[in-house]
Specification:
With 291 residues, the chain is an alpha/beta fold. The protein has two domains: 56 residues, Spermidine Synthase, Chain: A, domain 2, CATH 2.30.140; 222 residues, Vaccinia Virus protein VP39 (Rossmann fold). It has ten helices and 13 strands. Strands 9-8-7-10-11-13-12 form a seven-stranded mixed β-sheet, with helices on both faces. It has a four-stranded antiparallel β-sheet with strand order 3-4-5-6, with no helix packed on it. The chain starts with 12 loop residues before the first strand and ends with a helix.
């Protein structure tokens, strides 16, 4: 148990447990919900700036006010880079934000989400309805409650894009950063398919960055990262892993044309941001290449 699991009536501040030497604290206006599920210590509270906040095992996963910076970039970068995606596998993503953004692509005919913990979906639908925005009631979405590591190893399905929306490589998510998992992902991707995965904050999680790169490199010809900025992910910009056997070098004009076919408006993603997000700072390049 973490220190935040105190009497809820007395909880006025939440301090994130991810980086002990760099604490991030939120004022708590109200504890909305608290539970120990089969996999997580789950806490939902309200903050004046960020609205409702979801924390698992003492680590912030999303907030109502900045989730779009994560979900839009996780989804639309691979789906707009791919010339004609028809099928998507979502690994994790129980809050429904990834599924919400995927469903905006009307040409997709096969969408499967594999989430290990049904309670995350249930609690997110109840307490964060704007995040999933009805996505779990959409008939195009098939949701499976099981270990995604096992699903990817055993499935006969094939996908154009795999989006791994996992927590950091601890506990249930540890295998989702392994070389074996990335190899299994390669097997279930169609020719020219794209794999993306949440890859932590590189300034503070260099080993995660390096390990993910090394574990994907044997399986894919094109292995890289791209960036997004999520205010509540401590330590600077967030890294998203990228892997494919195809370069997918797409012009800004082509991205804009593809974007015009997507329902609704964006709050973070633009074609220019898409292109620029693959430009990495030197410290990341040094870390990846072991300098």
């Amino acid at each position: 148990m973490f220190s935040y699991l105190i009497a809820t009536a007395l909880l006025t501040h939440f301090q994130e447990a991810l980086f002990p030497d760099w604490p991030q604290a939120f004022s708590v206006e109200k504890v909305v919900y608290q539970e120990k599920t089969d996999h997580w210590d789950l806490l939902i509270f309200e903050n004046q700036i960020f609205g409702r906040v979801l924390a698992l095992d003492g680590v912030v996963q999303l907030t109502e006010q900045d989730e779009y910076a994560y979900h839009e970039m996780m989804v639309h970068v691979p789906l707009l880079a791919h010339p004609n995606p028809k099928s998507v596998l979502i690994v994790g993503g129980g809050d429904g934000g990834i599924l919400r953004e995927v469903l905006r692509h009307k040409d997709l005919t096969r969408i499967i989400e594999v989430e290990i913990d049904a309670r995350i979906i249930e609690m997110s639908k109840k307490y964060f309805p704007s995040v999933s925005n009805g996505a779990y009631e959409n008939p195009r979405a098939k949701v499976l409650i099981q270990d995604a590591w096992q699903y990817v190893k055993e499935t006969d399905e094939r996908f154009d894009v795999i989006i791994v929306d996992s927590t950091d490589p601890e506990g249930p998510a540890k295998e989702l950063f392994s070389a074996a998992f990335y190899g299994d992902c390669k097997k279930v991707l169609k020719a020219g398919g794209i794999l993306v995965n949440q890859n932590g904050v590189p300034f503070l999680q260099k080993e995660e960055l390096k390990g993910s790169y090394q574990n994907r490199k044997p399986h894919f010809k094109e292995v890289s990262f791209y960036l997004t900025a999520v205010p509540t992910y401590t330590g600077g910009f967030l890294t998203i892993g990228w892997a494919s056997d195809k370069k997918h070098k797409v012009s800004e004009k082509t991205l804009a044309e593809r974007l015009s076919r997507i329902e609704g408006s964006m709050r973070y993603y633009t074609p220019a941001i898409h292109k620029a997000s693959f430009t990495l700072p030197q410290f990341m390049l040094d870390c990846i290449h072991h300098k």
